Each structure stands twice: as C-alpha cells, then as structure tokens.
Fold these 2 entries.
Entry 1:
Amino acid sequence: MAYMSQEGYDKLIAELKRLESVERPKASAAIAEAREKGDLSENSEYDAAKEAQAHLEDKINRLKETISEAKVVDTSRLSTDAVQILSKVEMTNLMNKAKMTYTIVSESEANLREGKISIKTPIAQGLLNHKVGDEVEVKIPRGTIKLRIDKITVG
C-alpha cells in the first residue's frame, strides 16, 4: 500500500487518463501506419512501433497497480508531533550548518526539485518518528550526516 496526498493521487489519475486517451491512440496509429508500408518481416518501423506500444501498456499497467494500492491520507488528521508520511521537515545539517526542507511522500510522488523525497530514502527513514529538537544520524551513500529537526508541519 502506498500512502499519498490527494494531490499526488489526482496526478496519477490524470497521467493514466492521458496515457489511455492520448498516447495509446498515437501508438495504435503508428503501428497502423508502419503496417501499411508493406512486408512486416523486414519492417523496422513496425517493430519499433510495436515495442513502443508494449512499453506504453506496461507503463499503464504499473500506474493502474499503483493507483489500486494507493491510500489517500487525510492531511487534516496528521500530527506534527513526530515525523511521518506527508510531514514537511525543516532541518539543519549539523556538519555544515546548511538548512534543508523536505516533505516525505510516497515513492510515486517523490520529486526532488519540489523538495519531496520518498519515504524509502535513507534521510526519510532516519527522520521517521523523531520530534522537533531531535538530532539524528543518517547513513547516506557518501557517509553519515547528522541532522537536527527544527520544525515539523503537514506538507
């Protein structure tokens, strides 16, 4: 089960609709166009179009699976006492005094440019269930960092 925000769930639904109503017909048209070009045994355009369609169908199926396993979290019922899914955490890296803010989200909602990190990342795992003022050590690929949680809000 993947816990996510209503916004994240709505984005998945919109992407699924786009893939099914726009991309799927495009893939079918590309196959039909390639088929019209003659001998299918030596038609690389046809093979490429079939392969693109297979990738698209796979993407649609994975998206449907994610949606079926999604559990939308009512953000009004979330607590800011400790870090959890959909918490927006302001923290300080105690080694270089850098301030960072991340919102902890499901894997499908993760987007580093928007400051949203997957709950499965080492940083999110290290922060979970900790409170404001806590100092946590987190093992990341480059070593261990020490973070102080400065503020927890609902993201």
Entry 2:
Amino acid sequence: MSMIEIRNVTKRYGAATVVDDVSMSVEKGSITAIVGTSGSGKSTLMRMINRLVPITEGQIFVNGHDVMTVPVTDLRRKIGYAIQGHGLFPHRTVAQNIATVPQLLGWETAAIDNRVEELLGLFNLDHATFAGKYPHELSGGQQQRVGVARALAAEPELLLMDEPFGALDPVIRGKAQDDLLAIQKQFGTTVLLVTHDMDEAFHLGNQIAVMSAGKLLQCSTPEKILTEPADPFVQQLTGTSDRALKLMSLLPLSGSMAPAKAGLSHVLPQSLSLRDALAEMIWQGAEEAAVQDAEKVPVGSISMTRLLELGRKA
C-alpha cells in the first residue's frame, strides 16, 4: 500500500515551472531517494508534501488523504521533517529539542521523558551525558542524530529528509546513513529523502526517483536505474566506469553461493553484498571462502573466480 501518492503535480513561480507534471508513489515502510542536480525541483517536490510549498496543479495524498483537505497543523504533526543543518533550537537542550513535537501534542511528561531516553539510546547518545547539552556543545554528527531523533519523536509514519547528511564529512556521513537504515528498519517508518549524492541514493533507497529541470525522468529500483536507465541523464548520473561495482553492491552474496565446502580457512558472513565479499576476499588474499549465517553455521561457499565472473556480467 502507498504511503504517498503524487499525481500530476506541478509547481510554478510566475512563468517558471520548477516541478513539471510529476507522478510517483512511495510504498509504506520503504525508503525512496529523490536525486538530481541543484535546481532539479527535488526539494520543492518534497516540500509540497507537508505544504511548506503550495501546489500549483495536481494532488498529493498521504495515507489516502489529499494533503490540501487536511488542516496543515494536523498534517505536519504526523510527518517528521529533518533538514541539512538540523534546524535545532540553539537555546534548548538536546532533551528539550527532541521533546518539541510530543509537547505540542500534549503527551504526558513521563511518556515524553521515556521517548527522549529511548531515542538517545537508539542513536548511541548517552542520556546522562547528552540530554542536558545545548546544540553548540555537540559535534556535527551528534547534531545530525539529534535532528533525526527530534523528527522521529512523535512516532510519525512518514519521515521527510532534505539533504540531511550534506554537511557531514564522509566518515560521519556513512555512520549517519547506517543509523538511518537501522532506525527505519526497527520502526518501519516510511522515508522520503532528497539528495544530490547518487551513492547515498543507492545506499539508502529501495526506490530512486531521478529529477532534472523539474521533470521526473525515472522512478524505479536501484537495480533498474543502473541496468535500464530511461534517459541519458540518468545514465550519466549513475556513472559508467564503476557501474558493475555499484550493481554488485546491490546484490546479496546469498544469491550466488556454491554449496558449502569443508576445510576452507577464510570465512565471510552471508549478509554481505557481492561487492563487499569481493573486497573482503581481496583483503584476505583468499581464492575461496566459506559463507556463514548469523549463527556461524556454514551455508555455502564462494570463489574469487565466481565473484569476478559475476562482476563482468553486471
């Protein structure tokens, strides 16, 4: 079932059309990444969902309700929103920032305190250490985690994220992306994320929507974006030189294993992608490795020859 339905949506500012007749859907419990260059209309499209930007033409439905028929305050209370720079209130503590929306909704104090403590724990921020701190006392990565925690505080079914990791350095950015994947999996939150970074879209998205000059060029799975680009611009965005490695990063090792073998000294976890398995075998100098499940039980094997063959086919 769709959480978001966007039907023939257009946004004009005077004579300028910044979103041009876009239609797409976002399934419940999924992550959709909208990607495109600056000025492609991706942020404007997302902001029409929570009515930060008015719609010129078309309709947007959230959970089956036309957003234009829902009082804007009711609409936004049910949607989490996280942006680049985090938008934290500078004179409120971490705990007070996270508690903002639950307080507006009239939650009991004990319930708010429990939710703050739960979210700080999920983002590996010790409650005793961080609850009383102010945003300027936090690192960029910590501020980002608090910003996402605040967006999730009232348990929204939908989380909108506009370039939330854009200001972070690559190492912290990777950790923040993994945090989001773990939290999204735990809560089943539907996430719509705007990014200009195609690698981020591939890492996070179950679905990728590519926009250019206000138009939606393609909306599909990462695999189809790579293997069946609908437009030369889509192909250009995904790159050509490392397309095989990108595709391997989307394919699970578990789908390409040979039967288990005894006596193999190198071991790989079944949860790896083909790309990560290849990297591990190169680092280990292994020609062949056993594959184990989460309980360390052998479930198969994989050879370097097989991985390279799969890479060439990709």
